Structures are given as C-alpha cells and as structure tokens.
Amino acid sequence: MASITLTKAGRLQDRIRAALRELPLTSQVEIGIFAPDPAATVEREARRLRGNLEILARLLAILAKVRGATGRANVECGIGELLAEKAGIDEELKFLVKLIPERAGLADAGDLDGFLGTAPSLHRQAGEIEAQIRAMRARYEQAERSATTVEAPLLDEADAERLRERIVACRRRREDIGDRLRELNGSIRVEIDDAALDYLRAQDVI
C-alpha cells in the first residue's frame, strides 16, 4: 500500500477524471464504401471498444476507492465539517454584501476592503435626508425638473458598525478555515493500493 497526502489524493482523482474524459468511447464506426475489408474494420474497432470499456471500468473502480478513502479521511479529521462551515460563511457573506449600497464608493460588489475601510455614506446622518429632500424639492419647484426621489440609507451608525464587524468576523474565520484545510490536506494521509497505482502508470494516467 502506498501512503499519500489528501492533496495528492485530490490531484490523483483529477488525473483519473481527465483520463476518463479522453477515453475514446463510441459504439459506431464510419466505413467508406470503397473500404477493402469492412468486416475487418468493424472487428478491429469492436476490439478497441471492448478494451476501452475494460479500461473505463478499472479507472472508475480506482477512482471510487480513492474517493472513498479521501471521504473517510475528511470525516475523521474534521475536513467535512470545516468545508460545511466555510460554505455557510460564503453564503452569509454573499447576502451581507448586498446590504452595501452602490453609493458606498466601492469599485464593485466584491470590494469588501473598500467598505471595511471607510464605507462613506453607508449609514444615515441625522437630518441629512430631510435637508437633501428640501434642496431637491426647491430645485424642482424652480422648474429645474430635477430628480423626484432620493435613496435613503436604512442603517444607522450602530447598524453599519455591526455589519462591518460581522463581515470582518466572517472573513477572518474563512481565512482561518482555509489555513486549517491546507494544513490538514498536506498532513493527513490515505492508503492507495499499489496495484492500482501500477495500473494508472501503465495507462499513462500518472
């Protein structure tokens, strides 16, 4: 039995999947009407297909074993729980970012650093909206036909600060999880059958 890290096991699975995608599998062959021996061509291609189907079965079996060993190791060392937690954090961040208005001065919706730095105009200031509405109403009444609506922030300063703190906490926890995952993937090992590795080498998969 060979012992490899989870990182290498992941790469091994990728190599097997790549080999499976490239494996020629077709149940028909195109034969020209002037071919000298159509029956021989059919038999040759049929043998090739049978051989490729054997390779397919063997590669799938090896892939299943590697995936099973990796899955068991993930559960035993806690990687599965970490991945689930990371997925939850990613989902939460996706929704929290939607609370950052466009006028917060961000280059795009994913520019959290800009928001976490200053986030101008995120929260409402006392009397700000009323003053803005009075000025816009005055311009409109003077026949300037300016805009008749204004976007008003719903978050007060405390709300905005709580939002910032939650986003910072989520990002920090996501980074911690990423560090822990890299550590586990590089240290936890799984056992792979030597015969399986020999077969993969023979098929130029590894």
- What does the overall shape look like? elongated
- Provide the residue-averaged pLDDT: 86
Secondary-structure class: mainly alpha
The largest sheet has its strands arranged as 1-2
Tell me roughly what share of residues is in helical segments.
55-70%
What can you see in these coordinates?
The chain has 7 helices and 2 strands. With 206 residues, the chain is mostly helical. It starts with a strand and ends with a helix. It has helices at 6-22, 38-77, 79-97, 112-117, 128-144, 157-187, 194-202; strands at residues 2-5, 189-192. The chain is elongated. 10% of the residues are buried. The chain has a domain at 2-85 and 185-202. Mean pLDDT is 86; it is low at 103-110.
